[in-house]
C-alpha cells in the first residue's frame, strides 16, 4: 500500500473516532472542561466542548454564575460543574413557564435545580436570581447567567 493511502485511512479512522463520541463522552468532556475554567470562561468552554463535530451533542441548559464569584474552597468542582447543567434545553420562555418548585434535573445524578420564583421581576432558581437570560441559545443549548453559584446541598437532592 502506498503511504498516502495509509495516511488517508488513518485520517478517516481518527475523524470517525472523534465524531462517534457518545453522550456520556460529551458529558465527561463538558464537565471536565468547566472544572478547570473560570466562571467567565464557562460560556465559551461549554459551547466549544458540547459540539456536534466532537460527538453527540448534549441538549442542555447551563447556568453560569456571575464572573465575580469563584469556586475557591469548593470540595468537589466536578459536582459543582455538573450541577449547573440541566439535562434539557430551556430558553427563557420555557423556564418562565415552569411553576414554582419545579425540579429541573441536572447532570449531577439524583440532584436537581428548583425554580423558586417564576415572576418576571425576579426569576430565580434555588433562590439565586437569574440576572441575564439567553446569553447564548441555539438548537441544542441555552445559557443563562445567575447572580452566584448554585449550592447542590441546599435544594438539590431529588426525593426518591
Q: Can you tell me about this structure?
A:
The structure is a single chain. The protein is α+β, with helices and mostly antiparallel strands. It has a single domain, classed as FAS1 domain (Roll). The chain is 34% helix and 22% strand. The chain is globular, with a radius of gyration of 18 Å. About 8% of the residues have low confidence.
Q: What is the compact description of this entry?
A:
This protein is α+β, with helices and mostly antiparallel strands and 160 residues long. The chain contains five helices and seven strands, in the order αααβαβαβββββ. Strands 2-1-7-6-5-4-3 form a seven-stranded mixed β-sheet.
- How many DSSP E strands? 7
Counting structural domains, the number is 1
Head-to-tail CA distance between termini: 59 Å
The gyration radius over C-alpha positions equals 18 Å
Count of separate DSSP helical elements = 5
Which ranges are low-confidence, i.e. pLDDT below 50, for 5 or more consecutive residues?
9-20
What gross morphology would you assign? globular
The string of secondary-structure elements, in order, is HHHEHEHEEEEE
Largest sheet: 7 strands, mixed
Give average pLDDT, whole number: 84
CATH second-level architecture: Roll
Secondary structural class: alpha+beta
Approximately what portion of the residues adopt beta-strand conformation?
A: 15-25%
Estimate the helix proportion, in percent. 25-40%
- At CATH level 3, the topology is FAS1 domain
Amino acid at each position: 500500500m502506498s503511504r498516502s493511502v495509509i495516511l488517508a485511512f488513518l485520517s478517516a479512522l481518527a475523524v470517525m473516532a472523534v465524531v462517534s463520541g457518545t453522550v456520556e463522552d460529551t458529558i465527561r468532556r463538558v464537565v471536565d472542561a468547566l472544572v478547570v475554567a473560570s466562571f467567565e470562561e464557562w460560556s465559551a468552554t461549554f459551547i466549544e466542548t458540547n459540539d456536534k463535530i466532537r460527538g453527540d451533542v448534549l441538549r442542555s441548559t447551563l447556568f453560569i454564575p456571575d464572573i465575580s464569584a469563584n469556586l475557591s474552597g469548593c470540595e468537589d468542582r466536578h459536582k459543582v460543574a455538573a450541577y449547573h447543567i440541566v439535562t434539557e434545553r430551556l430558553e427563557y420562555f420555557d423556564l418562565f413557564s415552569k411553576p414554582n418548585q419545579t425540579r429541573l434535573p441536572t447532570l449531577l445524578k439524583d440532584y436537581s435545580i428548583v425554580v423558586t420564583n417564576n415572576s418576571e421581576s425576579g426569576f430565580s432558581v434555588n433562590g439565586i436570581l437569574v440576572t441575564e437570560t439567553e446569553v447564548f441559545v441555539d438548537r441544542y443549548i441555552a445559557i443563562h447567567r445567575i447572580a452566584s453559584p448554585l449550592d447542590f446541598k441546599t435544594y438539590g437532592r431529588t426525593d426518591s
